[in-house]
Amino acid sequence: MYLVTFRLDPGDYDEEFHELNDAIQEAAEGTEGYLGKRTWHDPESEEVLVAYYWESLDALETFGAYSEHKEAKRRWTEWYDAYEVTVTEVIESYGSGFGDDADPPA
To answer: Which keywords fit this entry according to its UniProt record (predicted)?
Structure first.
């Protein structure tokens, strides 16, 4: 499994952003190998961290080829003050106490 973390410092979102963001999420969910996502907001810094779970790098590359995703990457300065993407391979995941949400989407 692969984990893609998208850390962002939000700027101003307009209607066009929300339409594109919805299209990107729909594209992700329609990509074979997409396992899900989780989102965290830091109330002090207003930064957002979104963790996307992917079955394989092939699935991630398929998603990356969608035109909506490419458009958003080109236009990031319109909506974000900063961003960072990290792609990691998950070797192991474990824990206790979070119920059904403890495990990454499978």
So the answer is: Monooxygenase, Oxidoreductase
